[in-house]
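Hello again,

I reread your note about wanting to compare the complex against the isolated chains. To keep things tidy I'm splitting this into two emails, and this first one only covers the full assembly. Below are the input lines as submitted, including protein chains and any nucleic acid or small-molecule components. They are followed by the predicted structure of everything together. The single-chain runs will come separately.
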Amino acid sequence: MSRVIFHIDVNNAFLSWTAVDLLNKGYRMDIRKIPSIIGGDESKRHGIVLAKSPVAKKYGIKTAETIYMAKKKCQNLKIFPPNYSLYKEKSNQLFSYLKQFSPNMEIFSIDECFLDMSNTTYLYKDLKQLAYTMKEYIKTHFGFTVNIGIGNNKLCAKMASDFEKPDKVHTLFQEEVASKMWPLPVEDLFMIGKSSAKKLHELGIKTISDLAHVDLSKLQKHFKNNAIVMIRHANGIDDSEVTDGKYQTKNKNISVSKTLSTDTVDIEFIKKVLLQEAEEVGRSLRKQNEYAKTIAITIRNKDFFDYSHQTKLKNQTNETKVIYEVALDLFLKTWKRDYIRNIGIRLSDFVEDSHYQISLFESEEKIQSKSVDQTIDKIKDKYGFDSIIPASLLTSSVDKSKNTR
DNA sequence: TCTGGGGTCCTAGGACCC
DNA sequence: TCTGGGGTCCTAGGACCC
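Full-complex prediction:
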């Protein structure tokens, strides 16, 4: 019994959603029809392209390139700031609509999901027709367009939704792989990024067809175990399941990082940033009721060189104070005294309970610190993240803007 | 010229143990 | 002077995704 999977992908999600919002607010122009982008704030050194209109694409503008470059390619480019809470809202709207069509939906990102339609054939005679119905409903009721890809597995569905955009339904069934997917350049294949594409080209592998027919042992010399997956993908083979939210577990790591307003060696300033970050990751971890065994700090210097350092704790924690102290210690041990552009904290190795040895008694101080966290979390749940700020942050100019994408 | 942020997964290499 | 091998755990760094 072969499976049927849908992949639904919002066209230029951030830009489309901002366009819909502006139109709702009486803005006269549809920014999808002009050269426009959603871009980060250059003054805060977040100056990259987050999304582009089809017209901007015609100018050669690419996602994730610098706004500086994008402006060079198109003089009259219109730039709009991102609005993450709006995007979350639009995303929820879309997913709650789609969920009615199958009990098995996997949310892949804020603007993409998979629907396993395999066991719905008794409900819908013509699944391709159903996809068109969904697409039209979304367009007329929500105001933005999607691409829907249909295939016998997740990979094919995802590749299909990427074919021609926007506002299209495409199929990529097993028997269509050779005609529809093999002619494409190898870098179009899911999970072939810049680095793999470069190596493949050097090996004379230019198309997905080339990759589908390459000798496994030859490829393994360059890609190790990954070669197997690459060749399977090139042949349209993928056994992975659509995993419903109820099986989707909590995050396996939680991280936060901030690009500073200027490159700095000011340790007092860095301490303030670390404290704020410890508060953020600690809170996220407490929210999923887990404790971290590993804490890491990540540093990016002014030359864009990244380095990191991590440590495994004897006793897992989710306390802001402990996270901060460990992170600061790691930082001081690692820092090369170079000018810092970006600093972050990452928590990983989660466990569900806080039980550890030395349980004869917890120190008074520790119990107090825990109850402080609980109190702060409660207040922030009620009044918002910025309602309580550690005293030492009140005088700092740390950028508190958060990215929810 | 200026280059975000938050995830997942994998691998190389060192430490350590038997 | 030449000197095992395997397993496991850990860290750092990289590739990829949106």
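For quick reference: The longest strand of chain A covers residues 253-264.

B.
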